[in-house]
Write a structure and sequence with these properties.
By secondary structure, the protein is an alpha+beta fold. It has one domain. The protein has 5 helices and 8 strands, in the order H-H-E-H-E-E-E-E-H-E-E-E-H.
Length: 206
């Protein structure tokens, strides 16, 4: 997990995850387009920063880790949502000192393929970016607004700063990215067929 080498039992606060804030976040994942937008955001960044440090969720939880294994490591409350076929999203709230943030873990066919840290307070973003610079490059600062981090196994870190500030960790592996592309293609075919049907019906009645 990002920068912290402790057990999960210190991290997780018991809380129900059914507030309007969480519902807004969950609604982002009703469609595969949300994930494709993440990949598009990554690919829009021009500068690559290669690191020899392995990008993982936690010391012994890599990309591809099984959902049940991750759940067994969490000593606190969380919520799992399934809005898209084959994709499960696990949400939790974390508090470390004065820092509070949301953790999202995304599983494709029960394998970890993406995780995100979402911070409501954008004023603290420089703190987290500088910690990433220290951890992955032993630097004091790093421009992550225009670049991304890539490890030797082609796992990625990049940031977004829209409504909330987020640090995103993602991989193209485990069939996830191909599934998203196939879903997009199937959706476009379906929309095209629906359009042709509508045109045919209009032709009949006009």
């Amino acid at each position: 997990m990002l920068l912290f080498r402790k057990t999960f039992s210190y991290f997780f606060k018991s809380k129900k995850y059914h507030t309007s804030y969480f519902e807004r976040i969950i609604n982002n994942y009703k469609y595969t387009d949300s994930y494709l937008n993440l990949f598009n955001s990554l690919e829009s960044l021009k500068t690559e920063c290669k690191t020899s440090e392995k990008i993982t969720f936690f010391n012994d939880i890599d990309f591809g880790a099984h959902l049940n294994r991750v759940k067994s490591r969490i000593k606190g409350s969380f919520r799992i949502v399934k809005k898209i076929k084959f994709i499960d999203v696990l949400f939790m709230e974390v508090k470390l000192g004065s820092y509070k943030f949301i953790v999202e873990l995304h599983f494709f066919k029960q394998q970890l393929v993406c995780f995100r840290y979402i911070f409501r307070d954008q004023n603290e973003k420089e703190v987290f970016i500088n910690l990433i610079a220290k951890k992955y490059f032993n630097l004091k600062k790093l421009d992550l607004f225009n670049s991304y981090v890539k490890d030797e196994k082609s796992n990625y870190i990049f940031i977004e700063k829209e409504v909330d500030f987020s640090i995103n960790y993602i991989t193209y592996e485990y069939g996830f990215y191909n599934y998203l592309l196939e879903s997009k293609f199937e959706k476009e075919i379906d929309e095209s067929l629906q359009h042709e049907k509508a045109i045919a019906e209009l032709y009949d009645i006009l």
